[in-house]
Amino acid sequence: MDGINRTNDYVFKRIFGSEEGKEALLGFLNAVFRLPPGRELTDLELLDREIDPDYLLDRAARLDVLVKAADESLINVEIQIANRFDIDKRTLFYWARLYGGQLKSGQQFSELRRTITVNILGFDWFADERYHHVFRIRDIETGEPMNDHLEIHFLELNKVRKREWNPDDPLEAWLLYLNNLEGEGLKMIAEKNPAIKKALTVEEVFRKSELERRLYELREKAIRDEISMVAGAKAEGKAEGMVEAKQDTIIRYLEKRFGTAYENKIRQVRDVETLDRLFDSLLDIVTPEEAEKAIARVLPQ
Q1: Per-domain residue ranges for the chain?
Q2: Model pTM greater than 0.90?
Q3: Which of 58, 76, 260, 262 qualifies as a FRET site for 214, CA 20 to 30 Å off?
């Protein structure tokens, strides 16, 4: 296998969600959390390591990495490449499922543990230039935390590519790695960061497996299909918005000029070019009767 896409969630789970890749995952999470010396994560229990092959062709399937830290905190890491315009609600939904799912029948709320989600995004979500955003529950006036049980991270890969790289920042090094850095740049960050070097070792084993290559390509296809579907829906939404904007313009014009808007009839016309022709014809019309005839000519039969 030649170059691989490290933002492929199957690749990510194979590298970071395996016992062989635990050192790499620890390095990545310590870089994300920026914990002070002496408080770094030193061990993790990998949860949900199995991958159902049927998931690989399912565009909606989540191939995430779920671990438990030594203090019983749950940490979930997910890569999301296609912008479905709901990542804020999506992450809250899955955070709530993880948090609430800790309790079994008869257990007390005091047994709930801190739950952290890390979202790696292949698109820009926040308007500013920062690539790392962290959210917790705090009082809106004093900033006092309610507790530390909710923590949500967003990492935006595109913004790292646009920055001048800081070679001493471990998190930037990891995000460059995930941005499919190769060549001398990759060699340099691996020399500075043993956990990245470990990730590359696990990655090399992955690359040499014929079975892994086939499964990787299946997942790549599903990801490309999802991106295409989302792009198509976005284009369709823009077209729909254009139709409604032109309808609104015609309705306002008729209401202002003739005192009536013919709204129900105008809303039946869904073609942009037809709406343009209708508006041009209305500019030369003098009476409401003429307007009604012009509208009738373009209504769907």
Answers
A1: 9-208, 234-298
A2: no
A3: 76
